[in-house]
Amino acid sequence: MTTPLLETRNLTITFGGVIAANDVSLKIEAGRNLAIIGPNGAGKTTFLNICTGWIKPRKGQVLFQGEDVTALPPRKIVQRGVARAFQIPQLFTEHTALENLLIAAAARDGMRNPLIDLHDTPARDEMLHLLEMVNCADVAHRLVVELSEGQRKLIDIAVALALKPRLLLMDEPTSGVASSEKDGIMEILITALAEAKVTSVFVEHDMGIVQKYADEVAVWNAGNVQLRGAPAEILEHPDVIRDVIGEVA
Amino acid sequence: MLQLKSLDASIGIIPILRGVDISLQAAETVALIGRNGAGKTTVLRTIMGFTKVTRGEILFEGAPVTALHPPKRPALGIGYAPEDRRLFSAFTVEENILLPAQAAGLDKGETRRRLERAYHILPELKAMTDRPGGAVSGGQGKMVALARALMLGTKLIMLDEPFQGLAPALAQRYAEALRTLRDTDRSVTLIITESNPALLRGFADRTLVIERGEVAAGTLDAERTPA
Amino acid sequence: KPDSLKVGMTTFLTGPASVFGVPARDAMDILVANLNDAGGIDGVPVEVSYIDEGAGAEALSSEFRRMVETGGADVMFAAISSGNCQTLAPLAEDLKVPNFLWDCGTQKIFEEHDYKYVFRTQANATPEMLAAVIYLLKVKPDFKTLAVVNQDYAWGRDSWDIFSTALKAMKPDVEVVGEFFPKFGAPDFSTEISRLQALRPDVVLSTSWGGDLDTFVQQASQRGLMNTSTFVLPLAESSLERLGSALPAGQIVGARGDHYFLHPERRDDADFKAFMTEYEEKTGSVSVYSVFHASQALAALKAGYEKAIADNGGTWPDKDQFVAAMEGLTFQGLGLPVTIRADHQGIEAQLMGTSVQTGDYPFATLENIMVFDGAELTAPVGAVSTEWVGALDASFMDGLSISTFDK
Amino acid sequence: MNVTIFLLALFDGVSYAALVFIVALGLTLIFGVMRILNVAHGSLYAIGAYATVSLTGFALSMGAAPILAFPLMLISAVLVGLLIGGPIEVLLLRRIYNKPEVLQLLVTFAVFMILEDVQRLVWGTQPYFQSAVLQSLGNITVLGVTYTVYQLILLPLVAVALLLGLRFFLRHTLNGKLILATTEDREAAQSIGIDADRVFLLTFIVGAILAGLGGALASPTTSILPGMGADMIVLSFAVVATAGLGQIEGAALTALMIGLGRSFAIYFWPEIAVLVPYLIMVLVLLVRPEGLFGSPAARKI
Amino acid sequence: MSSVSTAPKTDAPKHPKSMLWIVGVVLLAAVPFAVPSLQLLVTFALAKGLAVVGVTVLLRAGQVSFGHALFFGIAAYACAFLMAAIPGADLALLLLVGTLGALLAGLCVGLFVVRYRGIFFGMLNLAFSMIFWSILEKFYHITGGADGIRLPRPTVLGMALERGPFELILYYLAIVLMVVLGWVTIRWFASPVGQIFQTIKTNETRLEYLGVSPRRALLSGYLLSALLCGVGGVLMGVAQGAVTPEYVWWVRSAEMVFIAVLGGAGSVRGAFLGALIYEIVRTYASAYAGDIWQMLLGAFLLIIILFAPGGLIGIFGSLAGRAVKEDAK
Ligand SMILES: Nc1ncnc2c1ncn2[C@@H]1O[C@H](COP(=O)(O)OP(=O)(O)OP(=O)(O)O)[C@@H](O)[C@H]1O
Ligand SMILES: Nc1ncnc2c1ncn2[C@@H]1O[C@H](COP(=O)(O)OP(=O)(O)OP(=O)(O)O)[C@@H](O)[C@H]1O
Ligand SMILES: [Mg+2]
Ligand SMILES: [Mg+2]
């Protein structure tokens, strides 16, 4: 069979007694959208942190397209085609929304001419389009400090997309996004990803979204994958209902 | 008990809120909804005194607080849980929760009582009392911020997207807990901003919709809250 | 004949060296006022304006330039800092403005370059240090060990070079047991002093000045170092009053020339007396060597113009006539007469003494004073000081003409 | 290396370190809490010294006992803190907390320049020296070397006392906690009822008092003259950086390293003495990029 | 930093404001004939201005260096030693060697300091400048210690010149360098590389997650800043005719930051404007206000920061803006 896009083997890490990752072994196949759900503090973000080299596991490896990237710093992993949108948006707050994307594009394309204006880079239209995709075209020229939490979340996702990754990791993409817009945005997002053949892994607390957009669901608990399977069956699973979803779904 | 009278507020030089009129009865629960960037957070921050009020005034229990020095406001009995958690990483979770009480100079007994109340509503926190505030997960952080708001919030509690990032099971449990809190302690008024009204269904007495810094639709009663 | 003679003087009004700069300015104000009351120079009043050397090199040179080019300064007095002298001397030469190096000590200037417009109206480091060495050898011939504590900058280094070269030449058996160069403006010398107490040298040399010297002497006397070692302090004359009772008797004190408010050969002179009293009334403290240096610059100006006028058949000279007159000129400020040599270096007598607490003053004064003839201690025209000094030997001391006074 | 020399160097190092620490302490506190590198600290230090000298001189001329200088030192320090530190915070710094840090740095730099000239206008250019109090404590002779009790014993004691005192204040008092909270997040602190303005004012005044105290305690040992503040400030900056942001224990340890490093240098390699603080800083930061006691600020993501 | 995003736009030629700048440069060019007494002062100011631009570059990344005088001094000393080695060396050669010297030093120091931020970055730079300073003091036999060494007048394209014409040439060289290097820096700020460099100020995590090494990004700007300081140092040394350790003394580094903020933190034009005004205020204050020039300077800075945080450039900008509007009417 083909090598999985991302594979982790026995990832383990603890923070002062707290087990954040407990022997996590997971294969992520290209082309399928994996949703990660689980109670708070289960280790979802930590998992993304390890996969992107932000923290080093005490034990275990991360393989991206078969290559061991465990020891690499985030930028090296990103250069290999992994992009990430964060649970707490990470943006250049003193640049405008558009500039944030243009800079991402520049980082992606490599910055050749040191004297051309960032705003004149060819990627401009593409980036404006991305902003529209996440309903932020209207704030394209506002500084990020001036934006609301939800707006930042969305732009953070757009920045990750701007990198044209093979694998996109999103940490609670829709949390803080107004419910009226969640659906629309996910819709556009997922189709765009499909077109661009981008595999996505997203941590999500909104089961509606999971149900609708995930090809597969992994349930995290106490630092490890408790269950994995198709959304339909997982979301019916009693444990999941007890620990994650709650009675009235 | 709280009134915003035709309020204009700006952040820096940029005007955000325009002619906001809100008036809350004691002990009612109001949901503040609206799309991203509508101005929900700004309303709360304005009540806390972190924006520049350019017009109109704020009355708390009849007394104007528009010009009141921000740090004096929590002492009036206002608890505020900011959207972006804002925990003090140098302190443990419990210290984070206790700090408001200590700053307000509450006596030991009272502080205990309120701490108990917080833990009663958020039992999950008991497990992580002495973890550094900087070392909790996103959702855990929201819980701590919530608990911290409960410490001083004897009259008014303002929660900015309290359920954001919480696993649904937990979120429901909190909605429950808040309800019980409100039912047991009839004096508290709750303002909850939420971009996901479903959770508040049958819980908020009223829903205010904010659009581009203005209170758009008037009040709708709980039953007709849009899902 | 101009209606006034404009002089620009650079001096430290700010920074540590203002302990010299400010007294010099005060003195200059007094002297110029007196000179003008007495009819100025051949009827022409002198106007002095000041530039603060503490304001930094750029401000200094652009201001120096402005004064010469548009400020109409006829003669410049610059500077106190040797560094500034090295920057300004070539500038003055290019601007073709007569410039008196009125206080800086570095001997390099005239030994490394020839100047037409630049003169030094006082001695340089060589005679100043030689006088100290010889005085030491005369009053304390049989000391064995010596340690030095100098400020860590050009003056501290150069003066030590000359002193040690001379000492090795004239008394090769002396052992240098410690060399310390604490940073300029160091607030504390405790460690050096502990070290010295452990080393117990017979003699401790320090050419430091201002606050550094005060601190060093104070801490040394507090901790009794001065009971075990003799201090040689070639610049201590400028600190006598401030040190008060902290400077015990028996330490060797110099004055960068024959500068001493109780100058044995001058103190009975009426003008000298008059100035000293006037200065003390105006400033509340006794004069220090920079005051003498200021007076010499002004005296040189006066004498120079008078000579030039004479040479010019009684009419006011132009710049070049004045410059020509300066060479070989002899003039007298508050100290003994000074002569400008062919290489434009001033020949100035040197005065050394030993501290004593007489009770006449609330601070140490000098006894066993020696006044040296500057000509004998200055490297001959064309010679490089360090080489010349290195070539000396013990016999050099015997040939010297020295006038001594017990106080 | 023989033991006597070693011990002597040790003594010298410690007594020097004590003074360095006392001066750097206030700076560390202010920087740790307000994130402002207070250049004016140097002037406060100098003015503390000048004030002490003047007051003591006056008292002595009134025929007071030298020992009276100690209360006078404290008084001068407090005066400096209240009369100069207070206004600086209220009138200047308070207006620019929301501005970039470099602006805050520059404001204190401007204040420094102004105060430098004020000193000269008030106290003139001639150095002062007032060591009556130091002499009144007398000397002790160790291993044949005479030390002043003041430098060898008193200063280190004061330093230790200040260290423990401030430590306790920050760790175990409510005000201390409020200060720490405000340090991390001004708005969050206000939203839970902490009066950030008050906290900052308090901190700055305490820091200023410590600066003044440093000057006061230094005054009997050194010439008081224009520009004395400048050198002290650079040294203190080095201490603050080496210590790690606002780490007072770090400051203590750094001061000790600098003191010992300096004295051993003077004993065995005088030429590098002046470089010691910088070499120590470079070496420390090489192994601990966040300073001795500093810890990397983990960004939440 | 909105100035970042708007800076390039206001550069568009024929924009009335940038016309004003051209006028400014022309006025400067007229100085030697209009007010010759200012010529040397302006030369110094421009030399400093170039160094200040160097500091400004780093300010754009939120980093303050307390030791950039190091590169200023290294370049100047490189020239002085070159002149000693090759008497009558050419100005062009000095410029080249001095700048390369600074660049090289920038690389060595840079590789080390880019690992640090904030006070650590600032103080490490200070440390290196102080280390170099005391080397200059210690090896006084070679460096002349605190008195420094002379930097005799170099030839210009082979011609040995008198001071008068030489300084005139130097003056215009300074103006040309200001225009060229200023323009390059502004373009660089607006360029992708420059923009990435500036993101260091706000979020290195995101930068890392864009696949860019923050240290590499910082180094790029650090080298530019060292180069600018170097050019400034060469001009200053040659104009002064002597170099002293004062060139690398921390006070000078502080002065650079001072001017950068005075002119308008982060603004290239502000750096030069600031340097000019600073030099004038300082020189005349010390000439006429005797011994309180420091106080005046300090007060001046306070007023600027408190009432015009945009710096002189901000004031100028708004004035110009108004002027332009008036023209429009
Ligand atoms: N840097 C850290 N130091 C100490 N403990 C940590 C750290 N980061 C995470 N933890 C702990 O590890 C556990 C997992 O954290 P993580 O952020 O992965 O949870 P999560 O699944 O993302 O939760 P949420 O859904 O609330 O974001 C939590 O209990 C958290 O307190
Ligand atoms: N610091 C600021 N400066 C200028 N404008 C700001 C600032 N903060 C927020 N704004 C603007 O104010 C408006 C309201 O912001 P606010 O945070 O109140 O929105 P919100 O309703 O809370 O949105 P969300 O649901 O995303 O949190 C937004 O358009 C935002 O762009
Ligand atoms: Mg998470
Ligand atoms: Mg919000």
TrEMBL record, chain A:
The keyword Ubl conjugation is annotated on this UniProt entry: no
Asked if Ubl conjugation is a keyword of the record, the answer is no
The cross-references to InterPro entries, in alphabetical order and at most eight, read: AAA+_ATPase, ABC_AA/LPS_Transport, ABC_transporter-like_ATP-bd, P-loop_NTPase
Indicate the segments forming the ABC transporter domain, all copies. 6-247
Q: Got a GO cellular component term for this one?
A: plasma membrane
Q: Which SUPFAM superfamilies does this one have?
A: P-loop containing nucleoside triphosphate hydrolases
Pfam families in the cross-refs: ABC_tran (PF00005)
An MF annotation (GO) of this entry: ATP binding
Keyword tags: ATP-binding, Nucleotide-binding, Transport
By what name is this protein known? ATP-binding cassette domain-containing protein
Species in which this protein is naturally found: Pseudooceanicola spongiae
Lineage, opening ranks: Bacteria, Pseudomonadati, Pseudomonadota, Alphaproteobacteria, Rhodobacterales
From TrEMBL, chain B:
Q: What is this protein called?
A: ATP-binding cassette domain-containing protein
Q: Taxonomic lineage per UniProt?
A: Bacteria, Pseudomonadati, Pseudomonadota, Alphaproteobacteria, Rhodobacterales
Query: In this protein, which residues make up the domain named ABC transporter?
Result: 2-227
Q: Which Pfam families match?
A: ABC_tran
Kindly indicate whether the keyword Cytoplasm belongs to this entry. no
Matching InterPro entries? AAA+_ATPase, ABC_transporter-like_ATP-bd, BCAA_Transport_ATP-bd_LivF, P-loop_NTPase
Biological process (GO) annotations held by this record are: L-amino acid transport
Keywords attached to this Swiss-Prot or TrEMBL record, sorted alphabetically, are: Amino-acid transport, ATP-binding, Nucleotide-binding, Transport
User: Which GO terms fall under molecular function for this chain's record?
Assistant: ATP binding; ATP hydrolysis activity; branched-chain amino acid transmembrane transporter activity
UniProtKB/TrEMBL annotation, chain D:
- Spell out the InterPro entries in the cross-references: ABC_transp_permease, BCAA_transport_permease
Highest rank taxon of the organism: Bacteria
Q: Which N-terminal residues, if any, form the signal peptide?
A: none
So where does this one cross the membrane? 6-31, 43-62, 68-93, 105-129, 149-170, 199-218, 266-287
The biological processes this protein is annotated with in GO are:
amino acid transport
Subcellular localization(s) per the UniProt record: Cell membrane
Cite the Pfam families for this sequence: BPD_transp_2
GO molecular function per UniProt = transmembrane transporter activity
Q: Topology with regard to the membrane?
A: Multi-pass membrane protein
Question: Which UniProt keywords are given for this protein, alphabetically ordered?
Answer: Amino-acid transport, Cell membrane, Membrane, Transmembrane, Transmembrane helix, Transport
Question: Which GO cellular component terms are attached?
Answer: plasma membrane
Record CDD domains: TM_PBP1_LivH_like
Report the PANTHER family cross-referenced here: ABC TRANSPORTER ATP-BINDING PROTEIN, BRANCHED-CHAIN AMINO ACID TRANSPORT SYSTEM PERMEASE PROTEIN LIVH
UniProt protein name? Branched-chain amino acid ABC transporter permease
